Amino acid sequence: MLEFGEKSTPLDDISEVENDLKLAELVNNDGLTPLHCAAVSNSIKILKVFSHKTPSSFDILTQPHNETVFHLAVRHKNLKAFKFMAQKVHLEKLLYKPDKYGNTVLHTAASLGSTSLAEYIINETKIHTKAKNIQGLAAVDLLDKDDANFPSIALKFGGESHKEESVMHSEALQNARNTITVVAILIASVTFAVGMNPPGGIYQESTSSKGKSVAAKTVAFKIFYVSNSIALFTSLWIVILLVSIIPFKPKSLKNVLVITHKMMSVSVAALATSYVAVGWIILPHFEGTKWLLYTTLGISIVMRGGMYVFLWFKLAKHILRKIDTERDPDEEAATGKGYVMYWKS
User: Fold this and answer.
1) Where is the chain membrane-spanning (predicted)?
2) Is 143 exposed, middle or buried (CB count within 10 Å of its CB: 0-12, 13-18, 19+)?
C-alpha cells in the first residue's frame, strides 16, 4: 500500500489492483467472497467500491451451484442491491447468466414468491419469462399454486396458460368431489334399502321371531350384515365430509379427496363382500347349484384382486421411476420442492 502523499507509478497501480483482486477472491467458511457477502447484506457502499476497484470480481461464482451475485441478491430479497448491479452496463451479461441448474434470477424470485423482485426483473430486464431450467421448468412453474393470488401472480410471469391450467385443475377437483359425493349417496341408498329388507326375508307369523331375519343365524348373513353396515356408514361419512360448507383451497381439497377416495375403496369392497354373502344366503345349496356360489366368489376375488394388483403395480412403477431419477441434495435443489428447500436452507 502507498503511504499518504506518495505518487504512484503504473507498476504500483497494477500491483495495488492485483492485491485488491486477491482480497476479492478470498472466501469465508460458506464459500462466499466479500462481494458475495455485500450482495447478501444489501450493502450498496461496498458494491460501489468493488464496482470501481475490481469490476472483474463480479464474475466470481459461488460453489458448487455457480450462482452469480444477482442470484444471491434475489435469494435474500435485496431489491436495492439487485437494482444497483442491474444498472451497471458491464454486468449485463452476468445478469442473464443461469446457475448450475439453468435457473435464472427469475426462477429464484419465483421459488421464493418474491413478487417485487420478479416484477422488477420482468419489467426492467430482458430475461425471458418462459426460459426453462435443466428440468424443463419455467419460472412460473416454481410459484406456489396454492397461493390465493396465484392467478394474478402467474399473469405477471407471462403465465396465462398456467392460469388456465390452474382453473382447469380447480374445476377437475370440484368435479371429482361431486362425482364421489353422488356415488357415495348411491351406495348409502342401496345398502340402507337392503338393510331394511334383509336377504331371505323375515318371519311373518305371530311368533317371538316375527319381523326377524330368517337367515340371521347363518355365517353368511352375519358377514352380509357387517359388510353392509361398513358400506353404509362409510358412504355416509363421505357424504357428510364432502357436502360440508368448507372453503377448501386446492391443496386442502386434494387432500380431502385422497382420504375420501380411500374411504370409497373400503365402501365398495364392503359392498362387494355384502353381495357375495347375499348370494350365499339366497342361492340353494344343491349339488347342481354349488358352482354358482363358487363362481360368484371367484369373480369377486379375481376382479377385486386384479384391480388392486394393477394399482399396486402402477404405484411401484412410479416409485421405481422416481428412485431412478433421484439426485444428490445439490441437484435436488434445482427442481420444484427441492429448489425451494435449497433456498430455505
Assistant:
1) 180-203, 223-246, 266-286, 292-313
2) buried
